[in-house]
Amino acid sequence: MQKNLLKLILVLVVISFVAVPYVILAPERAREKAEEERLFKEEIARTTAEKKTYLLGKFDPSVWPDFVQIPFEYTVARTKMYLRKETYASYEKMRNEALKSDIILNIASAARNFDYQKMLWNNKWNGITLVEGQKLPEIFPDELERFRKILEYSAAPGTSRHHWGTDIDINGADSIYFDSEKGQKEYAWLHQNAWKFGFCQTYDQKGPNRASGYNEEKWHWSYLPLSVNFTEEYKNLIKEEDIKGFLGEEYVPSFNLINNYVLSINPDCV
Ligand SMILES: [Zn+2]
């Protein structure tokens, strides 16, 4: 009987050694776990916010890591322009290859951040920049129609692939140039060879494969090894309410800009 009592006491002593600290420390452990979860969520929110900032072009490519300045002699207007390093490296290889066929591929436009795109957009909106030789406020007093007209060739700030440093306009940015003999020859070369360097004509002819979006742009090429990923991130992270901060922003919901424009690209470029 006494033996049993002793056994019981021994068991109780062992249990108390194990259980008491466990019970005492439980709230502390719960606090630590909650703190870990909070930090993890904060980290996700921070990286998501950083990605969104990038995708919306709200940064300065001239000081952003992984961007390089394009040599002046490779730019159409001899201006300061920037690209992601990888985009530039592949463009340079493509340029050298084209030179062997006496084709010169210069860059008319490269990375454009939100502020730059906003300037282009607002100037078309208020008539400072002429569109097809006309001031848009005069021929489109209806602002919704004016918005639609600018969208034929221009992205609203925050929705341009030029924000990402992966997209370039080559030798010009209008159909008249690419209808010329010189433009046709250059486009034929690009059409045949650009894919070998990772470039894809983002806005091909509209039709069954691309029902909506910008008109065909023979000059606009995306560097797929980077842009495919940014397109996917844009689709997942950017919401319509993120697209704002320019003239006419109140018409954004009328156009379903993300689906009908940002994501309405040549299926080969996805
Ligand atoms: Zn472009």
Automatic annotation (TrEMBL):
Q: Which domain of life is it from?
A: Bacteria
**Any one of the GO BP annotations:** proteolysis
Domain D-alanyl-D-alanine carboxypeptidase-like core positions? 81-225
Extract the GO molecular function terms from the UniProt entry: peptidase activity
User: Which residue ranges run through the membrane?
Assistant: 6-25
Keywords on this record?
A: Membrane, Transmembrane, Transmembrane helix
Which Pfam families does the record cross-reference, listed alphabetically? VanY (PF02557)
The record, for PANTHER family, names: D-ALANYL-D-ALANINE CARBOXYPEPTIDASE, PEPTIDOGLYCAN L-ALANYL-D-GLUTAMATE ENDOPEPTIDASE CWLK
Protein name, UniProt field: D-alanyl-D-alanine carboxypeptidase-like core domain-containing protein
